[in-house]
Design goal:
globular, 84% helix, 470 residues, mainly alpha
Length: 470
């Protein structure tokens, strides 16, 4: 993959994270806090719906794309079973009137249930159409699949403000559903050559069974990882309040800036490291990369701990606890990125069951942590539980990789990652009461890390300086 193509694929996650950073804070100023929490439940439902009803066939489509000559037929066989199942499920749920909205929002309303069903259907179709663009290496168009929904939501909320429309839950859900439907229409136009050929293509049930044999086992791992990243919001919905869910969702939206690092790094790292592994050359670069990423992860935690008070200038006063929660919310993107540098052995050995097991172990810990901490600390408890769970996820993945492939030094790795996570959890739960002590601790960790990783920082500054001067 050329640098130009890598850049085109990176635009989506980078732009999506930036628009996500804008969207929720913007919504907090104009909509009730509990409605912001309800919007978060809709977003969780959409991600869960796509994961569940795709039946793993989206991954099977990616796996088989380059092996099949009749690619439109492959698209039909991969998308049709889940689409039919989703439609039948939605029709069944809609028979209960406002049951869907009652379950998600605590409000029984037929029109809200219809809007949720429409958004689910649109997001499912968009998923497969975006894969058509991805596999044909239409990177810029693929990036729009991640960028457009958030961009359109910002535009629609902005129009509500300009037109002085009612700041109701209905309008908020309507804006979200409209953004997904619009994106689906755009994708349908961009991929019309593919899906128009797919409609009359033969539907081979034996081929579908073959795809399901590959895809269905992936659902368990996918659901475990979904639970690891989204179950905290579900528990906040059931064990706390929509107001706490709103605070937590805004915290996650600020921390999502770190997903830029995660997305761009994953795009570049995977093909590079497997090339090293296949040739047996350059393996020493894995440990060097791990040190660089660890240095960056610790630095981001420290900078966030020292500057999180700045978010108060962008949010209403009812969201003041975001400044404490956001640091722990960084645990997901930062620790996941770090684990990508240490998990190479699982991929090289092709023992994907170990990756699934790591997700299941961390998922179980997150469930227990949420049940224990949310009733006591609310949104703060959810953030701490997820952050600690991703620390476990990172350690388990690393140990599995070492067991399956080769040893690597990890004393420094674990010392700094555990220290950063423990400080983040302490900051989230008790930072408000510790006062000036916490900035001093964050500054001390930053100073110590600068000493430990001085070579990495110096080489980075030299690289940036040489790039600027050229």
């Amino acid at each position: 993959m050329t640098p130009r193509k890598i850049l085109s694929f990176a635009i989506g996650p980078v732009g999506g994270a930036l628009f996500g950073l804008i969207t929720l804070p913007l919504v907090t100023w104009f909509f009730a806090q509990e409605d912001v929490g309800r919007l978060s439940m809709l977003q969780v439902t959409l991600s869960f719906g796509v994961l569940l009803f795709s039946l793993g066939l989206d991954q099977a489509y990616v796996r088989e794309f380059h092996e099949r000559e009749n690619k439109p037929a492959l698209l039909k066989q991969a998308s049709f079973p889940g689409l039919v199942l989703l439609i039948l499920t939605l029709l069944g749920l809609l028979c209960f009137g406002g049951g869907i909205s009652e379950l998600l929002f605590g409000i029984s309303a037929v029109h809200l249930s219809l809007l949720v069903a429409l958004a689910l259907l649109a997001s499912f179709i968009s998923r497969f159409l975006s894969l058509v663009l991805r596999m044909n290496e239409r990177g810029l168009a693929y990036s729009m699949s991640q960028l457009l929904p958030k961009f359109l939501l910002v535009v629609l909320v902005g129009l509500y403000v300009l037109l002085e429309a009612d700041k109701t839950l209905t309008n908020l859900v309507l804006a979200t559903s409209a953004s997904f439907v619009t994106v689906t229409i755009v994708f349908a136009w961009n991929t019309r050559d593919e899906w128009l050929k797919a409609i009359p293509a033969p539907f081979d049930l034996s081929e579908v069974k073959s795809l399901l044999r590959f895809g269905l086992p992936l659902i368990l791992g996918g659901l475990a990882f979904w639970g690891l990243t989204a179950l905290d919001k579900v528990f906040l919905r059931t064990l706390s309040s929509f107001e706490e869910l709103a605070v937590y969702s805004v915290s996650v939206s600020f921390a999502a800036v770190a997903t830029i690092l995660q997305s761009v790094f994953s795009t570049v790292w995977a093909p590079t490291v497997y090339k090293w592994a296949s040739s047996g050359e350059g393996l020493e670069n894995i440990e060097k990369t791990t040190r660089f990423v660890l240095a960056l992860v610790v630095l981001i935690f420290c900078v966030a701990g020292l500057s999180s008070w700045l978010v108060n200038y962008f949010l209403p006063s009812s969201y003041k606890s975001v400044q404490w929660i956001v640091v722990s919310c960084l645990g997901f993107p930062l620790l996941y990125t770090l684990s990508e540098t240490t998990v190479v052995g699982i991929g090289v050995s092709r023992r994907s069951s170990f990756a699934m097991l790591a997700a299941l172990i961390a998922f179980g810990i997150n469930v227990a942590g949420n049940i224990w901490l949310i009733p006591i600390f609310g949104a703060k408890g959810a953030a701490v539980s997820t952050c600690f769970s991703f620390l476990v996820f990172f350690i388990v993945r690393t140990e599995f990789s070492i067991y399956l492939w080769r040893k690597m030094p990890r004393r420094l790795l674990y010392t700094y990652s555990i220290s950063a996570v423990l400080l983040a959890c302490l900051f989230t739960l008790y930072g408000d009461g510790l006062g000036k002590l916490m900035p001093m601790i964050w500054a001390a960790l930053a100073l110590i890390s600068f000493i430990s990783f001085r070579r990495e920082y110096i080489s980075t500054f030299k690289f940036i300086g040489s790039y600027i001067n050229t």
